[in-house]
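Backbone-to-sequence.
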């Protein structure tokens, strides 16, 4: 577990997308954020107070989160002395970059001399085992998509929040680097050797006996030529009882692969249900989540209504509309969820 509260490092970022990891933590776990740390020249903000390392420690911060990212996924030269200073001040450090913190000699040495922990959230556990597909107790929902970067993490977190607001036990289970920093634990499945993806997912969402729900963050798409393997491993390891399909209307092609059109909603849902039945024959779809950020409110409402009619499922934009209709459908499908969970289905 990554210890909170956090100090969020933004470096000298000039592009809002470069700090999306930190933004996700600030948006979904604001109670864990002491403040932000920006270098001269930084042009973005999370709306948090600017706090220096020593002051953050006085206020109770436990971990410095490296919230900036770049195309290569490596630490910037400017970040290294900041990380060393944080370790010397008594903070742990967590990063979602591809470059491992411990591979930087100055960082590794500072962690060792201060007895502090380094969290490379893209580094999977060394003791993973292959998935077995053995039914386990508990109720699980997995978000899936027509493409990658469709809002699966946001939708999963919105579902967790909405269920908890109704008094239903629910836990977000992270499978990507930003999700892990939000949740405090998880496994980045895109860094797991292919044979172990389903086993990693079984570990992320173990048996539970309280009648609650694990909301498992989906990744990629069964239709994406680059990431379908990760998506399939998640489907099998999650053993989902319910699926929510995520989609961005109007996307011209699969992300990063022009010439590969985005599949239709019905086809995508059918393929995901078919694949999921390998480890849970009773899986059902309970809703559709749209990213309608490119459309007006009226257009967004129309698009969601059309999708709802096509699939006979509630369709909402979690940002604009919330997810209450999807939660209604979920709970109506699993009114006996406590007994199902206790019996392991």
């Amino acid at each position: 577990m990554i210890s909170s509260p956090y100090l969020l490092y933004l470096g000298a970022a000039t592009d809002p997308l470069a700090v999306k990891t930190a933004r996700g933590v600030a948006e979904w776990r604001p109670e864990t954020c002491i403040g932000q740390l920006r270098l001269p020249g930084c042009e973005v903000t999370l709306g948090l107070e600017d706090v220096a390392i020593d002051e953050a420690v006085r206020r109770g911060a436990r971990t410095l989160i490296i919230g900036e990212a770049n195309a290569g996924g490596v630490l910037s030269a400017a970040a290294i002395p900041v990380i060393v200073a944080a370790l010397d001040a008594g903070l742990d450090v967590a990063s979602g970059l591809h470059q491992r913190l411990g591979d930087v000699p100055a960082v590794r040495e500072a962690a060792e001399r201060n007895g502090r922990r380094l969290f490379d959230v893209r580094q999977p556990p060394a003791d993973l085992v292959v998935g077995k597909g053995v039914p386990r107790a508990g109720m699980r929902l997995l978000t899936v998509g027509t493409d990658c970067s469709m809002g699966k993490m946001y939708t999963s977190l919105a579902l967790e929040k909405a269920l908890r607001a109704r008094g239903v036990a629910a836990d977000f289970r992270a499978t990507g680097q930003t999700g892990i920093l939000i949740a405090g634990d998880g496994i980045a499945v895109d860094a797991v050797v292919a044979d172990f993806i389903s086993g990693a997912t079984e570990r992320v969402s173990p048996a539970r006996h309280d009648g609650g729900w694990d909301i498992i963050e989906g990744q990629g798409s069964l239709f994406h030529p680059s990431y379908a393997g990760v998506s399939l491993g998640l489907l099998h390891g999650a053993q989902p009882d319910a699926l929510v399909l995520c989609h961005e209307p109007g996307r011209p092609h699969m992300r990063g692969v022009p010439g590969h059109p985005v599949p239709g909603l019905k086809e995508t849902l059918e393929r995901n249900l078919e694949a999921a039945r390998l480890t849970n024959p009773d899986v059902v779809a309970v809703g559709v989540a749209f990213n309608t950020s490119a459309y007006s409110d009226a257009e967004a409402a129309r698009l969601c209504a059309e999708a709802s009619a096509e699939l006979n499922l509630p369709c909402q934009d979690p940002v604009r509309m919330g997810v209450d209709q999807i939660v209604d459908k979920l709970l109506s499908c699993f009114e006996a969820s406590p007994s199902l969970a206790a019996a392991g289905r």
